[in-house]
């Protein structure tokens, strides 16, 4: 399951999977077997397809059927969805299953590629970046913003309020001291950058380990430890103006950031992953950013599945 499988083989396996689920004949099954045995890459891709089918069989029909939908015109969508799932089986299966069976976490949220500014009851403003979600819990004792996913820029209200304002993540609690600050959730940590004022940080499982992060600095912390503060990266809050700034950034890292703002799969061939890239790239128009990269650097953007899957490869 960990062997590298070509995108073309995965797409063909997905096509066969949908075809065999839709009233296939014995001839169809024989043709699929011939395809599978004709190339080692086909065999690997089909192994992933079978793994996916076994997982789908454990789900209730209302969750499994959208993946293999037989509705008119949905064949292409089904193939696209299956390819995306096969890329992550089995490591990403639990996350996909949870996402399919649960509503979007957070009462205020943004879709992929969307930014949203909200003003809370006390005048505090919160700008949500792409695919972000927050809960707001204002009580008589405190004003709490819970960041569940993604990234936010918080500008605390200028009007005095006796209740402390706090922002929480799974890793800990942040209390601004009259400030503007950026918070981003990662897989197992929280990244904090303070643009104005200061923020007091308390890790979730180490209440004694409190640090105050001042203006112009940033840090990263988990539930127990806070990294030493360092000078803020000027590019960190560029997303609020719709831009992604790169200064000699590895192409692989830039693409990882860009992929946050577009649906589908965006990948980099290992041969150009370390290419250094500089510039200001619009996150509101990812197609334009890809065009900029292709016109400036020795790479091509190879599209599959009608643009759902794009790989940057060496120009050749």
From TrEMBL:
Residues 11-52 form the FecR N-terminal domain. Pfam families: DUF4880, FecR. Transmembrane segments: none annotated. Residues 107-200 form the FecR protein domain. Gene3D superfamilies: 2.60.120.1440. InterPro entries: FecR, FecR_N, Ferrdict_sens_TM. GO terms for molecular function: sigma factor antagonist activity. This is FecR family protein. It comes from Duganella sacchari.
């Amino acid at each position: 399951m960990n062997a590298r499988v070509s995108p073309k083989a995965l797409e063909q396996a997905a096509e066969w999977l949908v075809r065999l689920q839709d009233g296939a004949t014995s001839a169809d099954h024989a043709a699929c077997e011939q395809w599978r045995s004709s190339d080692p890459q086909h065999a690997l891709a089909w192994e992933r397809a079978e793994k996916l089918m076994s997982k789908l069989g454990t789900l209730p029909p209302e969750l499994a059927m959208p993946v293999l939908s037989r509705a008119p015109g949905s064949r292409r969508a089904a193939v696209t969805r299956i390819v995306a799932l096969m890329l992550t089986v089995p490591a990403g299966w639990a996350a996909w299953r949870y996402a399919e069976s649960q509503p979007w976490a957070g009462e205020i949220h943004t879709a992929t590629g969307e930014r949203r500014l909200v003003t809370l009851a006390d005048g505090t403003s919160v700008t949500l970046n792409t695919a972000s979600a927050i809960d707001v819990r204002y009580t008589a004792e405190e004003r709490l913003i819970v960041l569940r996913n993604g990234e936010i820029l918080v500008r605390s209200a200028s009007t005095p309020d006796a209740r402390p304002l706090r922002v929480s993540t799974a890793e800990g609690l942040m209390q601004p001291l009259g400030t503007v600050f950026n918070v981003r959730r990662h897989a197992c940590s929280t990244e904090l950058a303070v643009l104005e004022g200061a923020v007091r940080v308390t890790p979730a499982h180490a209440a004694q380990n409190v640090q105050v992060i001042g203006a112009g600095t940033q840090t990263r912390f988990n539930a127990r430890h806070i990294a030493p503060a360092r000078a803020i990266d000027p590019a960190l809050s560029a997303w609020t103006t719709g831009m992604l700034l790169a200064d000699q950034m590895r192409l692989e890292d830039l693409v990882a950031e860009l992929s946050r703002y577009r649906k589908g799969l965006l990948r980099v061939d290992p041969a150009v992953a370390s290419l250094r890239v500089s510039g200001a790239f619009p996150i509101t128009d990812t197609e334009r950013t890809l065009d900029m990269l292709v016109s400036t650097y020795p790479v091509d953007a190879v599209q599959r599945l009608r643009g759902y899957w794009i790989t940057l490869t060496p120009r050749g």
